[in-house]
Amino acid sequence: xxxxxxxxxxxxxxxxxxxxxxxxxxxxxxxxxxxxxxxxxxxxxxxxxxxxxxxxxxxxxxxxxxxxxxxxxxxxxxxxxxxxxxxxxxxxxxxxxxxxxxxxxxxxxxxxxxxxxxxxxxxxxxxxxxxxxxxxxxxxxxxxxxxxxxxxxxxxxxxxxxxxxxxxxxxxxxxxxxxxxxxxxxxxxxxxxxxxxxxxxxx
Length: 203
Description:
This protein is mainly alpha-helical. The protein has ten helices and no strands. The chain has helices spanning 6-21, 28-35, 39-45, 49-60, 65-73, 80-102, 109-122, 127-142, 152-166, 181-196. Helix 5 runs parallel beside helix 8 and helix 8 (127-142) packs across helix 9 (152-166). The chain is elongated, with a radius of gyration of 19 Å.
């Protein structure tokens, strides 16, 4: 059977290591070893571990940015409630996978600062989805489906903040499990719409 291309093997190995040992401990040397290539070969495809991390988020996790971009480009499509429900569903799954990867950074201040600086240079970071959802909500505001006085940035922060919180807020409950993603997303979207939508959310 033909081997996967080197870049694909590197992304697969990086995803697996970042999930199991965390971003802080997933070194490029270990990633290259797991991918069956040299560290020099890794750097032929990725300039830094941070760029590799961004590509793992983009290519291996549930896609969120493309959905936000497409909705912002064509406001008025579908129902606002349906769109926000799908955004919340994908965001909840995205953060569920992202949190175990990135959580270890908060234990190492200098590494976290260096990582943030690198993401800033790459034009990435956890603020980007909030800005993307804000852009979509402002487009719907201009189309007349979101109230003119609604604070779209606050609404985006509330929805995505709740999705991020779901990734770690339920470990200490009796079940140890987060709410089922589909019902969680639907309730979240409906509640948010009560504060920003021109129309009443569905009953």
